[in-house]
Amino acid sequence: MTNALFTIYLFIVVTLVASAGMTVWERKAQCARRRFLGICAAGYVALAVGCIIATARSHMPGVSGAALGNLIILGGYMIVLEAVAGLGGRRYRALSAAVLAGMAALWAWGGVPWATWTWLYASSVPIALVCLITAWEAWRSPRCGRCDPATC
């Protein structure tokens, strides 16, 4: 891993940890959204842990570091999805479990020969889909506070 990429991961981790800390702090002031904010903070921490593991993936045996880092990062995105979907009373636990199991199976099937391809290409598809569903849930949520462009 080049120094520039390591620096980017470091900035991401620090930002995620700071976001988690501020979100936990905000839980004290926003009692009505306490559960939502707690789940978001957990998602940020999971993303930070996944990024830390991703920086050290080359020092772990086989594909274990890359697979573990990818699955934890994917899980972090899914935790944030669960929080946002919860605002509208919806859940994605079964879908999240299925996607994580599928990604774990892909890592196990691909192994070392397909590790680079899985890391660079295949792992981006479920992350992109989870981010798309999260954005869709935020748009649909009655409590996200969308404003009318005429009044903003």
Count the DSSP helices: 6
Oligomerization status of the protein chains: single chain
User: Could you state the order of secondary-structure elements as H and E?
Assistant: HHHHHH
Structural class: mainly alpha
Query: Can you give the mean pLDDT?
Result: 91
Briefly, what is this?
By secondary structure, the protein is mainly α. Helix content is 76%, strand content 0%. The chain has helices at 3-29, 34-55, 64-87, 93-110, 115-122, 124-140.
Mind explaining what this structure looks like?
The chain has 152 residues and is mainly α. The protein contains 6 helices and no strands. The protein has helices at 3-29, 34-55, 64-87, 93-110, 115-122, 124-140. Helix 1 packs antiparallel against helix 2 and helix 3 runs antiparallel to helix 4 (93-110).
Itemize the secondary structure elements and their pairings.
Blueprint: H1 3-29, H2 34-55, H3 64-87, H4 93-110, H5 115-122, H6 124-140
Helix pairs in contact: 1-2, 2-3, 3-4, 3-6
